[in-house]
Structures are given as C-alpha cells and as structure tokens.
C-alpha cells in the first residue's frame, strides 16, 4: 500500500489500491459466464480481504500526506469490499436448501465467508465524532454493510447447523454503538440502503428482546427461586441493553427522515411490527 501513489517534482500519479482492484475483479468474475473466471471468485475475495487490512492501516496517513483524492480512493475500496461481502452473504442466504448432500459444502462456504467478514471488520477504521462528514458518511455505510453481512451469514448458519448463536445480535449492537460516536444530524443524508439495513438491525434487536421476554417468563417459574432471581436479573439487564440499542437505531432513522424519506418509512414499519408482536 506504500506504492498507492508516486510523487515526482512536477507530477503525482495515483494508482488504484490492490483492495479496490481485486474487488473489481471479483465483481467481474461474479457477472461473467466464463467458468475460468468464476473458478477464481474465491481467490479474488481472499486477496481483496487481505489487501483491505493494509489499506485501512494507511488511511490516516493518506488523508494527511497524499490528499483527499487518494484518501477517497481508499474509502471507495473499503466500501466496495463491504458491498461485495454483503452481496455474497445475501446470495448464499438465498441459496440455502435442506438437501443433505449440499449442506456440508454450503456450511464450508458460510464459515469461510464468516471468517472473511470478521477479518474485514477488524481492519476497518472506527467511526468517531471528529471525522470529516464525507468520511463519516462513507465509513458508516461500510460498517453497516459489513455488520449486516455477518447477520445474514449467521441466519444461514442457524438453518444449516441448527446451533444457536448470538453473533448476529452482537453485530446489531455494534451498529447501535457506532451511532453513539456519530453526529447523525450533521450527516444531512446517507445512502438509502442504510434505511433497509438498519431496519434489519432493528428486527434482530427486537427479535432477541422478544426471545428474552419468553426466557424471563419460563425462568420465573423455576422451583429454585434463589437461582432464578439471579438469572432474571441478567435477563432483564440484557433486555434493557437491547431496548436502548433499538431506540438508538430508530432515533437515527427518524433524524435522517427529512433527507432520506425511506428511513422514516422503514422506521414506521419496524415500529408497527413491534406493536403487532406485542399484542
């Protein structure tokens, strides 16, 4: 990544980052009908994830030393990689079938993708209040797509393995935590896909809250009331945290309603679903 640009006395030549190049190759393979290219899809995915880590490490340096053109290219590469992982997760989720002959290979693909998403998220620079508005806007959509990719993979994994996992809930809570470090009102507008993805985030949080309410009801009937009391306290604390996180996401969607009306529509849908579930 040190070679992303070359400076001369009179001319500076910017080159595309390896992460961006491999993301482009990945999309090219995805839309191609050439079997040789399709066979390289996993290779391009692995290379893009590997180079993204190096890309994220140098973001701050590029912003101050090389200027916004190169920095913008780096952000675009991160966004492209997040979108690729998001699309890959959505496609795998839609391809799930209960055919036992397919389950093992499907599970392998899911675990591989899950690991790639984890490494990508770990490489992302954080969102904080002092970021430039344009930078914050791009990083928010990048984090959002990556976390929702995790949620989609976990939903598919639960169908394949039948094993419980809270990784989707952790991903949803991470988006709510990110909003704590964001001046949502100062963004003015966001990519409309945020409205769709954040509504998914809300559904994960509200679904887990509903599960905890059922767990609270069953736990309160246990014969060992002393032990049940301690467990009920933990359940209530977890439920309260989920409620706070859910309200943060809904509040962010409402704040953006004037410049992105779709967020208001999606927030209203989520709230209506919650009201219907509570009846």
Question: Could you describe the 3D structure shown?
Answer:
The chain is mainly alpha-helical. It has two domains: 1-164; 166-279, no CATH class. 76% of the residues lie in helices and 2% in strands. Strands 1-2 form a two-stranded antiparallel ribbon. Strand 1 (5-7) and strand 2 form a beta hairpin. The radius of gyration is 21 Å and the shape is globular. The model is unreliable at 1-17 and 48-70 (pLDDT under 50).
Number of domains: 2
Beta fraction: under 5%
What is the topology, as strand order, of the major beta sheet? 1-2
Number of strands: 2
Which term fits the overall shape? globular
Radius of gyration: 21 Å
Biggest sheet layout: 2 strands, antiparallel
Low-pLDDT residue spans: 1-17, 48-70
How do the SSEs run, as a string of H and E? EEHHHHHHHHHHH
* Ends distance: 55 Å
The chain-level mean pLDDT equals: 77
Fraction of residues in H or I helices: over 70%
Number of helices: 11
Judged by helices, strands and strand pairing, the structural class is: mainly alpha
Descriptive labels:
279 residues, disordered N terminus, two-stranded antiparallel sheet, mainly alpha, 2% strand, 76% helix, 2 domains
Quick structural summary:
This protein is 76% helix and 2% strand. The protein is globular and about 60 Å long.
List the helices and strands and how they pair.
Elements (H helix, E strand, L loop, with lengths): L4 E3 L4 E3 L3 H14 L3 H5 L1 H17 L1 H7 L2 H27 L5 H24 L9 H29 L5 H14 L12 H27 L5 H31 L5 H18 L1
Antiparallel strand pairs: 1-2
């Amino acid at each position: 990544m040190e070679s992303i640009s070359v400076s001369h006395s009179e001319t500076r030549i910017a080159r595309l980052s390896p992460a961006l190049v491999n993301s482009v190759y990945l999309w090219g393979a995805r839309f191609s009908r050439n079997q040789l290219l399709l066979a390289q899809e996993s290779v391009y995915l692995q290379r893009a994830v590997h180079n993204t880590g190096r890309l994220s490490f140098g973001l701050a340096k590029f912003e101050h030393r090389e200027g916004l053109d190169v920095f913008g290219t780096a952000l675009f590469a991160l966004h492209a990689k997040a979108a690729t992982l998001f699309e890959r997760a959505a496609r795998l989720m839609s391809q799930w079938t209960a055919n036992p002959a397919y389950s093992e290979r499907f599970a392998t693909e899911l675990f591989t993708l899950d690991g790639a998403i984890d490494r990508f998220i770990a490489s992302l620079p954080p969102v904080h209040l002092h970021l430039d508005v344009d930078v914050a806007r791009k990083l928010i959509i990048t984090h959002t797509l990556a976390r929702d990719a995790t949620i989609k993979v976990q939903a598919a994994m639960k169908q394949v393995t039948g094993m419980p996992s809270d990784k989707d809930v952790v991903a949803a809570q991470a988006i709510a935590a990110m909003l704590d470090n964001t001046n949502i009102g100062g963004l003015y507008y966001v990519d409309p896909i945020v409205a769709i993805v954040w509504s998914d985030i809300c559904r994960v949080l509200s679904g887990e809250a509903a599960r905890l309410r059922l767990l609270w009801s069953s736990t309160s009937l246990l014969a060992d009331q002393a032990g049940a009391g301690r467990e009920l306290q933990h359940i209530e604390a977890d439920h309260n945290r989920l409620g706070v996180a859910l309200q943060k996401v809904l509040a962010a969607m409402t704040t953006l309603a004037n410049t992105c009306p779709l967020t208001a529509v999606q927030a209203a849908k989520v709230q209506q679903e919650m009201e219907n579930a509570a009846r």
